[in-house]
Amino acid sequence: MAEAEEENREEIVVEKKSKRNRKKQKTENPSQKEETQERKQNGEGKPQQQDQVAGGDHPAQNNNGGGSSKKRKQREAFPFGNYRNYYGYRIGQEVDEDPRLKVLKREWFEGKDCLDIGCNSGIITIHIAKKYNCRSILGVDIDTARISDAYWHLRKFSREHSGSSSTNVSKEEVKEKLKASKQIAHVVPGDGEEIKKEASFSEKRNLFDVVSFRQENFVDSRHSHEKQYDTILCLSVAKWIHLNWGDDGLITLFSKVWKLLVPVFLY
C-alpha cells in the first residue's frame, strides 16, 4: 500500500509540473508573436508585396521575392525620356496649355516649315500648328508608341478644329499614316518617310494638311530629309541624347540641325 501511495504522489507531482509548463508556454506566446511581427517588419519574414511599378498602371504581383516586378520595371523603363503622358507629368493635368507656348513668338512659325525633334505625343506640335499657323510642321520621336499617341491627338484636335463633318476622313487618314509609319520603322529601325499633304498657305486647311509625324531616331538615323526647315524645336531632348550617346551624340545632333536649317533660321 505504501508503494502504491508513493507512485500516486509522483504522478500528481509530474502532472502539476506539466500544467505549470503549459501555463508558462501560454504566457510566452504573445511575446513570441510580437517578435515574429517585428521580424516581418524588418524584412526577415515573408516578403512584402511590391510597390506599384514606376510608370505603370497596375501594381506589381509578388512572385518569389519580386522577380516579376523587376522584369516589369525593366519593360516600363524610358531611357530616352519617352514617357507616356509626358506633358501631364511635366506640367500637370489641370493645365490647359503648355506654358512654353507663351514664350514662343508667332514670327518664328507663321508661314514657315518647322521640325519638332522629340515630339513625344505631339501635343505641343499640334498646338503650334493651330496657334501660330505654320505652313507645315513635322514631329519626330524615337518611340513608335508615342507616334501612335501623336496621331490619336491629331485626329482629336482635327475634329475639334474642322468640325464633325471631317471626322470620318480623319480616321482613315490617321490609320493609313500610322500604318505606313510602323512599316517603315520595322524595315529600317530609326528611319522613316515623311507623310503629309501639300497645300497652299492661303487655303483653309485642316490640321492633317499641316501636321505630320514619323518615328525616327534623329541621332542614328540614316534618312536624309527632303527639305530644309525655317524653325527647328528640340525641347527637353538634349539631356537624353547626352545621357545615351554622350558628347558625340550632341555633336551629331547639332551638326544635323545645322544642315537642315535654311540660311536664315531659328533653333
Helix and strand layout, with pairings?
Elements: H1 2-41, H2 67-75, H3 86-91, E1 113-117, H4 123-132, E2 136-141, H5 144-162, H6 167-187, E3 211-215, E4 229-233, H7 238-260, E5 261-266
InterPro entries: Bin3-like, Bin3_C, BIN3_SAM-bd_dom, SAM-dependent_MTases_sf
GO molecular function: O-methyltransferase activity; RNA methyltransferase activity; snRNA binding
Organism: Linum tenue
Structure description:
With 267 residues, the protein is α/β, with parallel strands linked by helices. It has a domain of 170 residues: Vaccinia Virus protein VP39 (Rossmann fold, 3-Layer(aba) Sandwich), CATH 3.40.50.150. It is 48% helix and 10% strand. Strands 3-2-1-4-5 form a five-stranded parallel sheet. Strand 4, helix 7 and strand 5 form a beta-alpha-beta unit. Helix 5 packs antiparallel against helix 6. The protein is elongated, with a radius of gyration of 33 Å. The N and C termini lie far apart (115 Å).
Provide the descriptors you would attach to this structure in a database record.
alpha/beta; Rossmann fold; 7 helices; 5 strands; elongated
